[in-house]
Amino acid sequence: MTELIKLTAAEAAAKLAAGEITSVELTQAHLDHIAATDGAQGLNAFLHVNAEEALAEAAAVDADRAAGKELPALAGVPIAIKDLIVTKGQPTTAASKMLEGWMSPYDGTVTQKVRAARMPILGKTNLDEFAMGSSNEHSAFGPVRNPWDLQRVPGGSGGGSAAAVSAFQAPLALGTDTGGSIRQPAALTGSVGVKPTYGSVSRSGVIAMASSLDQVGPCARTVLDTALLHEVIAGHDPLDSTSLNEPVPAFAQAAREGAQEGSLKGLRVGVIKELGGGSGKGFQHGVIARFMDSLELLQAAGAEIVEVSLPSVQHAISAYYMIMSSEVSSNLARYDGVRYGLRVVPEDGPVTIERVMAATRAAGFGNEVKRRIILGTYALSAGNFEAYYGAALKVRTLIQRDYAAAFEKVDVLVSPTSPTTAFKLGEKTKGDPTAMYLGDIATVPTNLAGVPSISLPAGVAEEDGMPVGIQFTAPAREDARLYRVAAGLEKLLTDKWGAPFYTRIPDVTETIRDFDFGGTK
Ligand code: GLN
């Protein structure tokens, strides 16, 4: 591993601006590391590597810098993009056979913004098929492995983006979060992930899973790096009807201020009773232990810790899986064998549109996607609509009210990001699928409420040595507050440990060499 890939995005940007390194060197170092650590006999974090184009853009940035042109803050810093976001000139698959080999004719808004920021795109990262899952095992192209332990999952759906930043394959990545797909993988891989306020980052050109919940957000190894990337991707977009028409706040400045001495003094932090507060029921021992360590640090730094209750959160999983599946069943109706990707014509019998559609969808979708389409179609059918979908919408309103009431009393809410650390591959895919769903308890409520949330590393659990994530949530449009608070805690933890958390991430080049990939496949 060269030192270049160990740089944070902020450090790399500073070195590029000072002329100490070139973007070609930096981009090549990441591509070399991807080549050495990825693929089926590796992390499998990338579904497509975009080496040639990335290097061409890096060279163009270097030339512009040499010519004295003014460049954006992250110009020349490479990035990976979750393969749910469309990119011109590279395949976009949503990790589904349905879209295998499909080339988008246009760039999504966030892709355009990344290009305008002059960031070389390293490639497209693996995910659970159409972003449905919490382990990456539902990808049609094989699971992603956790850089901390190759026998474990990296979380999902954005396991590829999280594993890529955690394993130093990329300093930055884009993810999408419908019910935790940025934050839970961040927690399980010891990285940082942010779900922005709903509507603050454009969804145009993001393959839709559940439109009222989906949100694009940044993945990185530090809070400041996520803030820097958030500034690149946020902003009003007329192509997204739910886009907020407001100026982009200074997220990076908020993160820098947060890291200053005394920034947490007087902050009112609400510990959510139902999510790891109180008795910590349903949460792994080491997760609660690290959570408590962080609360102690916050308190010692002058924050006021109070317990708050969000009573309706106990129904969040049920409401989320009902609303999300309903929207999924509608959004995925477009994959009909006519418009996009796969088209399967039945070999015998008449070739009718219905039969082509059925054969295509049977062959193109994996089991988890089919399960959700069936559940959602059932929930939306005439006789069931009020009982299921309607009831779930009411619970959603109650959850929104719980958050509003809590934010009358506190500035931010805090909980563990995930009830457990990363589990073993195969552990939750046998039998009852709800075993996996239950692990989303701490992340789905914020999507239902539309509020922003960040996960950052809080240490490792002693029982398995795996990273633990802590999650802060702020009121809608207060994403900058999250950066201030998270950077404040990150600084306290870094001082306590004597080094940033990412310096503890194992070097996968060595573990991959010794790992028996046949054994756990
Ligand atoms: N794990 C959740 C699910 O399976 C969240 C997915 C997501 O955020 N895309 O639905």
What does this protein structure show overall?
The structure is a single chain. It is globular and about 70 Å long. The chain has 17 helices and 11 strands. It starts with 8 loop residues before the first helix and ends in a 7-residue tail after the last helix. It is 38% helix and 11% strand. The protein has helices spanning 9-17, 23-37, 51-66, 109-116, 159-166, 183-189, 223-233, 251-258, 285-300, 316-331, 353-364, 367-380, 386-409, 434-437, 444-449, 479-497, 508-514; strands at residues 46-49, 79-82, 121-125, 172-176, 192-195, 216-220, 268-272, 304-308, 412-416, 453-460, 467-473. The mean pLDDT is 97. It has an 11-stranded mixed sheet, with helices on both faces. The protein is an alpha/beta fold and 521 residues long. Helix 7 runs antiparallel to helix 8 and helix 10 crosses helix 12 (367-380). It binds glutamine. The site of glutamine has 14 residues, from loops. Glutamine binds at residues 131-134, 156-157, 177-181, 209, 324, 440.
List descriptors.
binds glutamine, 11-stranded mixed beta sheet, 521 residues, 17 helices
